[in-house]
């Protein structure tokens, strides 16, 4: 399996590479379905895409978007929610119709129905054209924690303690319940036309080193990237040194 592997000087350069890759696909497939991770990792990338749209270098009016994951039980309007990050850095900055964007309702009474809605949205749009993913310190992709099936569709997850701990930084109230998540499954991500994993900083080193060893294991979900037909990994020097 060949992988497109980029090692850049710093987070800013990683973001530039990821944004260029995404913008190239958006230009080629303006009607595609795009899945972007929330949280800190993709902020730089998303802001570059937003600037390109604001400057009319790219047209997002025909594209569709789907949220990768969300914290269960936390109001989407909370500043720490995944969709809040996506809106602040991209969707609220560009003129798109909300009909173009599919999100999870983490407060829904029937979360399994939320999973089915996400699955249906993906199917109706012919699959995910491109997914931009961060990687957790434990190797997770989205909220697909260690031990997750590589064949899953959207599902509910009991989050690892490490994920809950890292998640504190997103919320002004550290006592919010971060024990469960809802996420697209690795099976869906592996079917993306393009699958990009972005990672920066020494904290991600262990997970990326495990990926680079070439061993594919459910105990480190990022290693599933090896199963993709055309995988892309973009990291900074801190991750590999």
TrEMBL record:
<keyword id="KW-0119">Carbohydrate metabolism</keyword>
<dbReference type="InterPro" id="IPR018321">
    <property type="entry name" value="Glucosamine6P_isomerase_CS"/>
</dbReference>
<feature type="domain" description="Glucosamine/galactosamine-6-phosphate isomerase">
    <location>
        <begin position="11"/>
        <end position="225"/>
    </location>
</feature>
<dbReference type="InterPro" id="IPR006148">
    <property type="entry name" value="Glc/Gal-6P_isomerase"/>
</dbReference>
<dbReference type="Pfam" id="PF01182">
    <property type="entry name" value="Glucosamine_iso"/>
</dbReference>
<protein>
    <submittedName>
        <fullName>Glucosamine-6-phosphate deaminase</fullName>
    </submittedName>
</protein>
<dbReference type="GO" id="GO:0016787">
    <property type="term" value="F:hydrolase activity"/>
</dbReference>
<dbReference type="InterPro" id="IPR004547">
    <property type="entry name" value="Glucosamine6P_isomerase"/>
</dbReference>
<dbReference type="InterPro" id="IPR037171">
    <property type="entry name" value="NagB/RpiA_transferase-like"/>
</dbReference>
<keyword id="KW-0378">Hydrolase</keyword>
């Amino acid at each position: 399996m060949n992988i497109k592997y980029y090692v850049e000087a710093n987070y800013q350069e990683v973001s530039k590479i990821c944004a260029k890759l995404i913008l190239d696909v958006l230009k080629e497939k303006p009607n595609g379905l795009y899945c972007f991770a929330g949280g800190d990792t993709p902020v730089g990338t998303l802001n570059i895409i937003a600037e390109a749209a604001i400057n009319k270098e790219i047209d997002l009016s025909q594209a569709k978007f789907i949220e990768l994951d969300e914290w269960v039980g936390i109001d989407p309007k909370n500043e720490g929610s995944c969709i809040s990050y996506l809106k602040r850095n991209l969707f609220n900055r560009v003129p798109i119709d909300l009909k173009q964007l599919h999100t999870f309702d983490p407060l829904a009474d029937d979360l399994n129905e939320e999973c089915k809605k996400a699955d249906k949205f993906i199917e109706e749009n012919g699959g995910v054209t491109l997914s931009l993913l961060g990687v957790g310190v434990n190797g997770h992709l989205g909220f697909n924690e260690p031990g997750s099936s590589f064949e899953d569709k959207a599902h509910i997850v009991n989050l690892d303690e490490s994920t809950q701990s890292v998640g504190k930084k997103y919320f002004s109230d550290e006592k919010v319940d971060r024990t469960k998540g809802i996420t697209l499954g690795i099976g869906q991500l592996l079917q993306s036309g393009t699958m990009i994993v972005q990672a920066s900083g020494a904290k991600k080193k262990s997970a990326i080193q495990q990926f680079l060893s070439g061993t594919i294991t459910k105990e480190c979900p990022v290693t599933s990237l090896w199963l993709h037909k055309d995988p892309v990994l973009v990291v900074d020097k801190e991750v590999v040194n």
